[in-house]
């Protein structure tokens, strides 16, 4: 978790050094080779030791090679000679002068000096090798000796090829270990290591060092998603330990961590949180942030909730960041956005003016956040409109649709519907029409087609509240939206599953229903035709005649409900299990004189079934189809098969199964005779599954085979192998991974494999080749029928006797000509899949 205490970025620190100090520094001459800073750099290089290739054994000796000893002796001799020469020169220059009291210091941390006790301690600090460097040298010697010994042994045994291959691998390892890793901004990250920790705390530091040493950490300048997650995981685990000694973290490590954690992209959703924590730690460690890092740290602080502190840090950086050419634009844009979000419109406007009046090629779109902030306050909405005009003037032809959408959303959110409509009119007519302040909208704007485009755009963008505000505004202006537009808004509200939106949808839908009922009553009085003539043909008369009181529900003829309005409410009530409301809606549907659709009928059938009134659902279906002429569709029969007891009850009743068989066969016969079609079997793939599983549960095995044969002719349905396994195992889905279900699936798979193997062996004996897709379909259908016989316990029955039973069942269902006789004329008459042009019957 990130720390929840604010911190102030010390942005006043600068790298400026006065000229006199620079002169004194240059006069000191070159530094000696062996210094404390070099020792620190060497310590950071420790993790990149060359790793030897895998060997079968290691030589125990770690004695230094003669060449390495000679190199070390030569470097030390040269260093001592330089020290002697410097001492002689110093004595010659200071001959005859009084002795000077010299004090020695060591820099423990950046900016913190520690006085040494004597010159001997100074010699130990400045002239000796670090123990870590000595250990690294010793380990390097051992690895090199091991490798050389292995190579000599291989060459001596005559395995020269293996020795050459191992030598190349060793060279490649050295080259890869010491090559730099290039980051996104061409930063070279070489030796990354955090030393100086031991004991129980070493584990988290070791994990972080292991992460920093990975060669695949940066590939092509783009960190992987896995790298981002592991970087934060390892660093957050090591933070408490690192806080005990921030000086142990080298600047290169900080830069590398910043490069990874601040990576911008969808794969780094917690970017700002991580930047905030990292910037806080770097500030505690005394690390000076670069200009770009300071800006990002301020933004992260603002997003993490420390808004006042972030704005204060931004103000203090006006000299160091706001006046530099490389950070001028980013600095003022950040300030403008933060002040807009914070509500400080005065300072935000000053920042925007500073940007727009500069010569840094500013982006005028920085005005959009200011428009949103100004429009949110009632006393500054006029200024928001002025800023919008300024934005249009600056962008000109470069103003895009997305810019208009941002402005329109800003005005709608602040209930500035008129300004939002004017912005939309500007987008559509290039500013040629002005509607602000007018009591009546022009014909080019105040019509269903133009308003429909706007509402469709708002609904598609998810701005449902804005769309509703547009509807209310249009009603106040005398423009009545069409039912199609309002139905789209109602459907979007209902699909959101938000209680407030569902309530708004019901309120708007019932308002449209009341308008429909008012219209029907007026039509019954004989006045509707005159009102419609005035409304559609006389443009000088308002859409809502002034002679009628709009508050009177009897005479409020706003947007009238359509059949789609009733269907949307019916589906919602059925899904929510509000059966009483659905029945009430059904009664109102008759009063509204709207024809009943198959969709509404299907919702009522499902609702009756859910309300434990399956018999009433079937009666309602028969009444609608036989007496009112409603044409059923595939969803109707899905709902009807859901009324069977085998699909409703957990514990099956054998007495009810007989009733289910009769009802299922009647539903299937009605489905075949019904006049409905679809483009592809993929559209209604659940219908054959539902039918077969229902007949299987009711143990109507002959009905299963007859139904499968019929659906193959009419639906082009072929049972797939997964469906066969589900039927064999008795499970509705293969996705449930319970132990019992998996055991049943395994048994079903074995059954299907055995039936397929038996069928193919019979074909091989007959000399038939399984090469075509049609033969594969025939095989699956044959296996299905064999599976049904296995389920019925009649796998050894006489085929002729089985065929007689199938003929009898087909006659009862009314599909004898289709399933048994294969009458091409009857098949073409009742086919449900639309035949493509040029296709022929099988």
From TrEMBL:
Entry keyword Repeat: yes
Region ranges (Disordered): 44-64, 82-101
Coiled coil start-end: none
Keywords, ordered alphabetically: Repeat
InterPro entries documented for this protein: PPR_rpt (IPR002885), TPR-like_helical_dom_sf (IPR011990)
Biased composition (Basic and acidic residues): 82-94
Subunit structure: Binds to mitochondrial small subunit 15S rRNA.
Task of the protein: Regulates mitochondrial small subunit maturation by controlling 15S rRNA 5'-end processing. Localizes to the 5' precursor of the 15S rRNA in a position that is subsequently occupied by mS47 in the mature yeast mtSSU. Uses structure and sequence-specific RNA recognition, binding to a single-stranded region of the precursor and specifically recognizing bases -6 to -1. The exchange of Ccm1 for mS47 is coupled to the irreversible removal of precursor rRNA that is accompanied by conformational changes of the mitoribosomal proteins uS5m and mS26.
Family: Belongs to the CCM1 family.
The protein, known as: Pentatricopeptide repeat protein
Organism of provenance: Apodospora peruviana
């Amino acid at each position: 978790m990130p720390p929840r205490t604010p911190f102030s970025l010390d942005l006043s620190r600068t790298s400026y050094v006065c000229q006199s100090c620079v002169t004194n520094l240059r006069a000191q001459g070159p530094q000696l080779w062996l210094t404390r800073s070099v020792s620190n750099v060497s310590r950071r290089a420790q993790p990149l030791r060359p790793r030897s290739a895998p060997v079968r054994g290691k030589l125990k000796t770690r004695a230094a090679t003669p060449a390495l000893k000679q190199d070390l002796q030569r470097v030390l001799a040269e260093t001592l000679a330089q020290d002697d020469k410097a001492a002689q020169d110093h004595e010659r220059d200071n001959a005859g002068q009084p002795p000077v009291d010299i004090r020695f210091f060591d820099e423990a941390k950046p900016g913190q000096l520690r006085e040494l006790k004597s010159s001997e301690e100074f010699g130990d600090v400045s002239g000796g090798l670090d123990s870590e460097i000595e250990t690294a040298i010793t380990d390097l010697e051992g690895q090199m000796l091991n490798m050389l010994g292995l190579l000599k042994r291989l060459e001596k045994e005559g395995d020269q090829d293996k020795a050459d291959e191992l030598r190349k691998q060793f060279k490649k390892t050295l080259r890869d270990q010491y090559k730099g890793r290039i980051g996104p901004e061409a930063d070279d990250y070489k030796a990354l290591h955090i030393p100086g920790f031991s004991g129980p705390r070493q584990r988290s530091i070791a994990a972080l060092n292991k992460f920093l040493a990975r060669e695949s950490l940066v590939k092509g300048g783009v960190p992987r998603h896995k790298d981002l997650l592991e970087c934060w995981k390892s660093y957050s685990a090591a933070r408490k330990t690192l806080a005990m000694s921030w000086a142990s973290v080298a600047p290169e490590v900080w830069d590398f961590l910043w490069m990874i954690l601040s990576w911008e992209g969808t794969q780094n959703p917690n970017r700002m949180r991580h930047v905030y924590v990292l910037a806080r730690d770097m500030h505690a460690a005394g690390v000076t942030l670069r200009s770009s890092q300071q800006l990002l740290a301020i933004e992260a602080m603002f997003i993490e909730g420390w808004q006042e502190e972030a704005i204060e840090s931004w103000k203090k950086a006006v000299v160091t960041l706001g006046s530099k050419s490389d950070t001028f634009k980013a600095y003022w844009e950040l300030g403008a956005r933060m002040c807009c979000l914070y509500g400080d419109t005065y300072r935000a406007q000053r920042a925007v003016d500073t940007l727009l009046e500069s010569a840094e090629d500013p982006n005028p779109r920085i005005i959009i956040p200011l428009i949103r902030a100004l429009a949110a306050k009632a006393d500054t909405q006029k200024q928001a409109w002025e800023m919008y005009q300024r934005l249009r003037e600056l962008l000109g032809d470069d103003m895009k649709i997305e810019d208009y959408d941002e402005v329109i959303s800003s005005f709608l959110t602040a209930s500035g519907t008129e300004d939002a409509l004017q912005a939309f009119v500007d987008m559509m007519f290039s500013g040629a029409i002005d509607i602000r302040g007018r009591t009546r909208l022009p014909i080019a704007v105040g019509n269903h087609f133009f308003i429909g485009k706007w509402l469709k755009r708002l609904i598609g963008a998810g701005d449902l509240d804005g769309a509703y505000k547009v509807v209310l505004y249009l009603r106040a202006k005398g423009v009545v939206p069409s039912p199609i537009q309002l139905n789209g808004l109602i459907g979007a509200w209902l699909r959101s599953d938000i209680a407030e939106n569902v309530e708004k949808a019901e309120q708007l839908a019932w308002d449209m229903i009341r308008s429909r009922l008012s219209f029907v009553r007026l039509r019954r009085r004989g006045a509707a035709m005159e009102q419609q003539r005035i409304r559609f043909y006389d443009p000088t008369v308002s859409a809502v005649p002034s002679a009628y009181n709009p508050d009177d529900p009897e005479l409020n003829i706003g947007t009238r409900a359509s059949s789609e309005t009733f269907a949307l409410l019916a589906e919602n009530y059925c899904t929510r299990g509000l059966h009483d409301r659905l029945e009430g809606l059904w009664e109102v549907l008759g009063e509204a004189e709207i024809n009943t659709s198959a969709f509404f009928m299907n919702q009522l059938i499902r609702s009756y079934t859910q309300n434990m009134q399956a018999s009433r659902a079937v009666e309602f279906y028969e009444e609608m189809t036989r007496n009112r002429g409603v044409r059923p569709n595939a969803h109707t029969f899905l709902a009807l098969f859901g009324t069977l007891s085998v699909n409703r009850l957990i514990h099956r009743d054998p007495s009810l199964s007989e009733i289910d068989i009769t009802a299922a066969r009647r539903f299937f016969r009605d489905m075949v005779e019904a006049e409905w079609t679809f483009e592809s079997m993929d559209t209604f793939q659940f219908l054959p599954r539902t039918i077969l599983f229902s007949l299987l549960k009711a143990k109507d095995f002959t009905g299963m085979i007859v139904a499968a044969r019929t659906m193959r002719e009419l639906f082009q349905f072929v049972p797939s192998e997964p469906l066969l396994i589900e039927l064999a195992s008795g499970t509705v889905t293969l996705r449930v991974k319970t132990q019992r279900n998996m055991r049943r699936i395994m048994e079903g798979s074995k059954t299907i494999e055995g039936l397929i193997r038996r069928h193919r062996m019979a074909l091989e004996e007959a000399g038939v080749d399984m090469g075509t897709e049609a033969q594969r379909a025939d095989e699956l259908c044959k296996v299905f029928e064999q599976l049904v016989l296995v389920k019925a316990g009649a796998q050894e029955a006489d085929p002729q006797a089985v065929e007689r039973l199938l003929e009898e069942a087909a006659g009862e269902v009314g599909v004898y000509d289709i399933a048994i006789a294969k009458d091409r004329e009857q098949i073409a008459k009742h086919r449900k899949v639309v035949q493509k042009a040029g296709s022929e019957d099988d």
